[in-house]
Structure formats: structure tokens, C-alpha cells
Write the C-alpha cells for this entry.
Amino acid sequence: MSTPSWMPSIVRENISLKPYTTLKVGGTARYFASVSTLEDLKGVLGFRKTLNYPLFILGKGSNLLLGDGQLEAIFVQNKLNALQLDGEKVRVGAGVNVSYLSQKVSKMGYGGLEFFSGIPGTVGGCIAMNAGASKADTASRLLVVKTIDYDGIERAYEAKTLEFGYRTSPFRSKNEVIYEAVFSVFKDGEAENKRQTILKNRLDAQPYTVPTAGCVFKNPEGNSAGQLIDSLGLKGRKIGGVQVSMKHANFFENTGTATTQDILELMRNIRYEVKKQTGIELELEIIPCFTTYTHIPQHLMGN
Ligand SMILES: Cc1cc2nc3c(=O)[nH]c(=O)nc-3n(C[C@H](O)[C@H](O)[C@H](O)COP(=O)(O)OP(=O)(O)OC[C@H]3O[C@@H](n4cnc5c(N)ncnc54)[C@H](O)[C@@H]3O)c2cc1C
């Protein structure tokens, strides 16, 4: 396909997506743009509409498994990064890293967002995934979500009108890009201490110095996917360049040469062992994105 003359200048072609995911795997984006303003985002959405192409919105790529090879889509990296504390509300751009947000707010003496500490995602990605930790989740502090849809129509949702679930939200199935959110916080002189404790516990329990995408599988009802995998002696199991972490069995580590195919194989292998030995079907927490040229086998999705 030749380059359209009306392509916005921020859109680039044939960009490797590896650096844009925390697992450091993935193929080449047919089109790629980093957007730092709502105007830039609108420009890319207009480009998508004219081209009539699939669009995939990236945060920090910390929960993604992207296909190898050429990915026929427009990948948009969200870098909208405003942050403003106003009384007991904090308004943030969807591209802000939530760990940074948590630190910023707790250092100003406000609590409520400490659970975000150490989660490497963006506000937009954490709303879409309803990310959570330490018995709290994104939805629990969320007041407002602002989006723009693929036709450029802007919406503001009151969070209490939205149905969030375990690692899911209505935005997983909407053609809308989250560009801003408002969270509620409260005065708490202990917030920074709490945040540091949460961060320390996380660094002690999870692998942070190697490429991963966080938890691979959702926790089955009343169970922990990590403990299940560990109890079957599967820590350290390796296929190609990927292995089950020795530190946390629900994390897969890219040892340097992993391909998406290796990761899919290891997922299949672990799901098979867990099903065979316990009868439990593990469901993916990681989001696979394979666009038109590659295909995720349905049996890996667990639904
Ligand atoms: C070391 C490590 C620790 C982790 N710990 C946790 C944890 O404790 N709890 C937890 O829940 N997760 C955890 N994760 C997973 C991950 O950080 C979260 O799922 C996070 O919410 C993903 O955010 P992201 O910005 O990276 O989104 P991405 O991975 O880039 O995208 C995830 C999904 O959100 C969509 N999305 C992203 N931005 C937007 C937007 N602006 N508008 C609409 N849709 C959007 C994407 O299209 C995709 O479907 C961890 C990951 C790592 C690597």
C-alpha cells in the first residue's frame, strides 16, 4: 500500500512495536503514532476514518501480547500527560503512568491511589483493564472518564454508571479512546508511607528487572493462578526464549530472544498442565493483538 499524501505528519510507517511493550516482543506496525495532545489524537482518528483501517490504542503496552510479523493496523501510543490536583479530585491525561500518579498524589499528602504504585500502565490502560492490586481496583477511585470515539465524538461518563469487572471494563468493546479521567482522593498524611510499603512488597514478590507483561492468567474464582502454577512445579518451565518466572509463577519472562510464538506455546503448555492436573481452565489476562495477518487460536482465550 502506498503512503497517502494526506497522512498526518505524526503518523509513521513500518515501526517495530517491540520497544512499545514491556514484554519486548511483537511485529511491525503498518502505521504508528504517538499522541501527546487531543488535537493530535483527533488528527489520527481522522486518518483512520479516511483509510478505514483497524486502530489499536496502546498505553505502556504492559498487558499486551502483539503478534509477530506485519500488523495491519494503526497503533496509537497515548502520551496525553496532564495532571492537576483540585481539592479531593485529581484530573489526569490518559497517558500518565499510574505509578507516577500515585507517587505524585501521595507526596502531596493525599491517599486513595497507593495501590497503583509499581503498576507500569497508563491511566487509560488501567481504566480499560480495571487494573488493581492490594484489594483495590481502578474503578474504585474513578469519578469520570472522558473519551473520543472513532468518529471524533467526545463523551464524559460518570464512572458510577459504568459496569466494571475483574480486569475488564466497557471500554474493552467500545471504539472509543480514553483521553482523560478524574479520580477521587482524600487527605491522608500516611499515604506516602503506605505507598512505599506497597511498592516494596511488589518489588519483593514480582520480577521487575526483566521484560514481562504482568500476570498472564486471571485468577480463577477463589484461587490464585500463580499459586496453582507454582504448586504444579511449573516455575522455570521454558519454551524458546520465554520462561515461567522463578519469582512469580503467573509472570512469563522474556529471557532475551522470545518470540510471540514462544509465548503462545508456553501459555498453551501451562494451560494444558493446569487443566490436566486440576480441572481448572485458566483464562488469559494478557490482551492478544494479532490483527489481520496472524490469528490467536480460540482455545488460548479461555472463553
Ligand atoms: C511488572 C508488571 C506488573 C503488573 N502489575 C499489575 C497489577 O498489579 N495489577 C494489574 O491489574 N495489572 C498489572 N500489570 C498489567 C498492566 O500494567 C495493567 O493491565 C495496565 O492496566 C495496562 O496498562 P497499559 O497502559 O500498559 O495498557 P496496554 O497494555 O497498552 O493496553 C491494555 C488494553 O487497554 C487498552 N487501552 C490502553 N489505553 C487505552 C485508552 N487510552 N483508551 C482505550 N483503551 C486503552 C488497549 O487497547 C488494550 O486493550 C502489570 C504489568 C507488569 C509488566
In short: The CA atoms of residues 72 and 165 lie 30 Å apart. The two ends are 35 Å apart (CA to CA). Residues 22, 56-64, 78, 94, 119-122, 124-126, 128-129, 131-133, 171, 177-178, 206, 208, 212-214, 287 surround flavin-adenine dinucleotide (CB under 6 Å). The chain has three domains: 12-78, 83-195, 207-294.
